[in-house]
Write a structure and sequence with these properties.
The chain is α/β, with parallel strands linked by helices and 359 residues long. It is built from 13 helices and 13 strands. The strands form three sheets. It has a six-stranded mixed beta sheet. The protein has a five-stranded mixed beta sheet with strand order 7-8-9-10-11, with no helix packed on it. Strands 12-13 form a two-stranded antiparallel sheet. The C terminus is likely disordered. Bound molecules: zinc ion. The site of zinc ion has 5 residues, from loops.
């Protein structure tokens, strides 16, 4: 365990500046607000994520680079942290204008290379999943339309430099260890500067919101459903072990006490799984019924997001043997396997929030 007290805000920003890292806050049309892109003033001049594909985002990217004495044309390397459109939309445009290399984790290369087609497949799989878990057909139709309209903020990306998990990306002034940390998306990649104790983590860990482990199509195209929350918790356990002093997130402020923050998140997921178990133990329910019981109307307006949350936590309960799935007229219902009281479910995060004992 780190013996250091978390850095003060002033100290944090001093360390980030000394590391030659500039934060560019690029507007997005999404509820999450601006996305943080990071400029590494190093050789090669490197941009991490580029913002969504819009004229407004491109203008701001140009202006913010200019304020730091750079132009898009000066960029030599663009790194993509994951497949979401608020991060990848401008990558191709920026790379074309600058001639920069584009680096991304190898597993995401086919997906971003066929962005439009694969997003369509992803939506089809999401629609099937929503119908199977009880979301009404007309709602699924509306959501598909919304998703299609959002797609214009994305773009395909041609990756010229695929990265392997665990490899070291060397710049003149730093070494970054490439860490594949799936969960929030199947391609979440963190970049670890061990010398400075700085992790560039994008949406893997965000200070003010818990990252949604969105259910997503398997990147190998297998059609198999990933256990997004289970994967996410495993990824967080690895990040928890890092002696990181500063974590730079894809949205919001830097994280300086990641162990405490990750433990908070583990506790939240444990509580939420217990709540969901209580509902399922009362009576067997579909995923949509659970989401409605927990979040009311939000389960309607944010149907896919809330269903992802429910299924993620039910995965934890199924893996621990407390809940099973039963299919009835092509509708999936969840039921308790035994009469275990909710307070006796035990630790569903399996050791994740007991890290203190490991020292
Ligand atoms: Zn994301």
């Amino acid at each position: 365990m780190s013996a250091h007290a978390p850095l003060t805000e002033e100290e944090t920003w001093r360390r980030i500046t000394e590391a030659g890292i500039q934060t560019l806050r690029i507007p997005t049309p999404f509820a999450v607000g601006r996305v943080n892109c990071y400029l590494l003033e190093d050789d090669p001049l490197t941009l991490i994520d580029a913002g969504p594909n819009s004229g407004k985002a491109l203008d701001e990217l140009e202006q913010q680079l200019e304020a730091l004495g750079h132009r898009i044309e000066d960029l030599e390397l663009v790194i993509l942290t994951h497949q979401h459109i608020d991060h990848l939309g401008l990558v191709d445009i920026v790379a074309r204008r600058s001639g920069a290399e584009v680096a991304a984790i190898d597993v995401v290369v086919p997906f971003v290379g066929r962005f439009g087609e694969d997003s369509e497949l992803e939506d089809e799989q999401a629609a099937e999943l929503m119908l199977a878990h009880g979301i009404p057909e007309d709602m699924v139709g509306v959501l598909a339309t919304v998703s299609r309209s959002f797609r214009a903020w994305g773009s395909k990306v041609t990756v010229t430099r695929p990265l392997r998990d665990g490899e070291t990306l060397k710049l003149a002034g730093r070494s970054l260890e490439v860490q594949l940390r799936p969960g929030h998306s199947p391609s979440d990649t963190c970049f670890w500067d061990a010398e400075r104790g700085i992790l560039i983590a994008a949406d893997h860990l965000i200070k003010h919101i818990s990252s949604n482990p969105l259910i997503s199509r398997a990147l190998d195209g297998s059609g198999e459903r990933r256990q997004a929350l289970v994967e996410y918790i495993e990824s967080l356990k690895l990040t928890r072990e890092l002696p990181a002093e500063i974590i730079l997130a894809g949205h919001g402020e830097p994280v300086t006490d990641h162990v405490a923050l990750i433990d908070e998140r583990f506790a939240l997921h444990q509580r939420r799984a217990e709540k969901i178990y209580r509902l399922i133990a009362e009576e067997s329910r579909s995923g949509y019924e659970v989401a409605q019981a927990l979040w009311g109307n939000v389960a309607v307006t944010q149907a896919f997001l809330t269903l992802s949350e429910v299924i993620g936590h039910v995965d934890l309960l199924i893996n621990a043997g407390h809940v099973r799935e039963r299919e009835e007229d092509s509708l999936v219902r969840f039921e308790a396997t035994a009469a275990t009281p909710p307070e006796e479910l035990g630790d569903l995060i399996s050791g994740g929030n007991r890290g203190e004992e490991k020292g």
